[in-house]
Design brief:
CATH architecture of the largest domain: 3-Layer(aba) Sandwich
Helix content: 25-40%
CATH class of the largest domain: Alpha Beta
CATH superfamily of the largest domain: Type I PLP-dependent aspartate aminotransferase-like (Major domain)
Oligomer: single chain
Shape: globular
Distance between the termini: 21 Å
Structural class: alpha/beta
Order of helices and strands: HHEHEHEHEHEEEEEHHHEEEHHHHH
Number of strands: 12
Radius of gyration: 22 Å
Strand content: 5-15%
Largest sheet: 7 strands, mixed
Number of domains: 2
Bound molecules: pyridoxal-5'-phosphate
CATH topology of the largest domain: Aspartate Aminotransferase, domain 2
Length: about 400
């Protein structure tokens, strides 16, 4: 590759590879969502109501659990899960450092301590052998994250949980469509949480769902999600008329609105079709990057169904002699938006200071954290967009590979 003449990079004053900026994570919204949102706006009721109920029913069926609770975020779902399981001060929850802040923040919000266990360098997912080493008498739960849509190795995680009497809360923010062996992600652990944030596989703007097959936990989460009011409080505004409601606990304000559910209902109906589109983009990206000595493509695993949320190659920074951040700055100038999933949490100031963590603590998470990047990957992309992405990425890599180190 380096032998091909390198085109001038846009960051050095050359013409950008793509004319118009390609936004990272632009969702595919159909006419059905637009019509349903309009109908909701015209209906006189935009808060939590019948559309949220419908979406919850459809979602629990899709995941294969008994209960699904619509919320304003996945963060709320993870928080409520820990809360319903009674996890609090003095308790430890084992999770991955290679995740979004929300995963560990909610452990802190509940007064418990996040304990990180390093990831598998190949998959980026929490390594069960590392979890085992972190279990103490204070451990109450394991919080695995199915990173980028790739299921964690759930059999050994569930075995460890059973052996040590721990709860498993799945952070399935990226993994709505994922499967592990013959099991649906979100139906394996005790409670699971999904995200419908603006860039996710299913979008409602902001939004989330928390799932469980345990009635008691669903009840507890439902009550806490709406100020601690008795369960059917939302229906006090429906045609059933005013209902007395009781404040049972000082709860939170985490409920989903019908306006959000209006989108979610139709997004869910097209979820498998959209996955097929992203499957095709995945194959296109793999084919384009095959043979590029500076990129390590995401691995394929036979026993899983990847939800194809994020396509995250690793940049071989040692071979390239440039950092991932230099690469991303140059890619941005080629008019391609990109992301990083994720900078390992133990390298963030709060986690460093509060828990005394430092670089060197989780070598595999750091290896990925320093090299990973995410390119646009939504079902909204056309094949031409996808080709722009790979063309620009390869152009930048070529440029970096052929430039003299002194020029930086
Ligand atoms: C792994 C992971 N967990 C949790 C969340 C939180 O999701 P939400 O924004 O819906 O609260 C995110 C959001 O991006 C995430 O990436």
């Amino acid at each position: 590759m380096a032998s091909k003449a390198a085109a001038a990079l846009a960051i050095n004053g050359g013409a950008p590879h793509r004319e118009k900026f390609l936004v990272f994570g632009a969702p595919l919204i159909g006419e059905e969502e637009i019509r349903e949102v309009e109908a909701t706006l015209r209906s006189g009721w935009i808060g939590t109501g019948p559309r949220t109920q419908q979406f919850e029913k459809d979602f629990r069926k899709y995941i294969g659990v008994k209960h699904a609770l619509g919320l304003n975020s996945c963060t709320a779902g993870l928080f409520l899960a820990l809360n319903a399981l009674g996890i609090g001060p003095g308790d430890e929850v084992i999770t991955t450092p290679l995740t979004f802040a929300a995963t560990a923040n909610v452990i802190v919000h509940n007064g418990a301590t996040p304990v990180f266990a390093d990831v598998d360098r190949r998959t980026g997912n929490i390594d069960p052998a590392q979890i085992k080493k972190k279990i103490t008498k204070n451990t109450k739960a394991i919080l695995p994250v199915h990173l980028c849509g790739r299921p964690c190795d759930m059999d050994p995680i569930m075995d460890l949980a059973e052996k040590h009497g721990l709860f498993v809360i799945e952070d399935a923010a990226h993994a709505i469509e994922a499967r592990y062996k013959d099991k649906k992600i979100g139906a394996i652990g005790h409670i699971s949480a999904f995200s419908f944030y603006a860039t996710k596989n299913l979008v409602t703007g902001e939004g989330g769902m928390v799932c469980t097959s345990n009635r008691k936990w669903d009840d507890a989460m439902r009550v806490m999600s709406l100020h601690g009011l008795s369960k059917s409080a939302w229906s006090r505004y429906s045609e059933k008329g005013f209902k007395f409601y009781d404040t049972q606990l000082p709860g939170f304000k985490y409920n989903m609105m019908d306006l959000q559910a209006a989108m979610g209902i139709h997004q869910l109906r097209r979820i498998e079709d959209n996955l097929k589109i992203r499957d095709a983009h995945w194959a296109r990206y793999n084919a384009a990057f095959k043979g590029c000595e500076f990129l390590i493509r995401p691995p394929e695993q036979k026993h899983i169904r990847h939800a194809r949320h994020l396509y995250t190659p690793l940049l071989d920074i040692d071979k390239l002699g440039a950092t991932r951040d230099q690469f991303l700055a140059a890619l941005q100038k080629e008019n391609i938006g990109a992301g990083i999933h994720f900078i390992a949490l133990h390298l963030h100031s709060y986690y460093k200071k509060r828990f005394g963590l430092k670089r060197g603590d989780f070598p595999n998470a750091e290896y990925i954290s320093d090299r990973t990047f995410s390119i646009p990957f939504s079902a909204r992309l056309t094949s031409a967009d996808a080709d722009d992405v790979t063309g620009a990425a390869l152009k930048v890599i070529r440029g970096l590979a052929s430039r003299s180190k002194a020029s930086w």
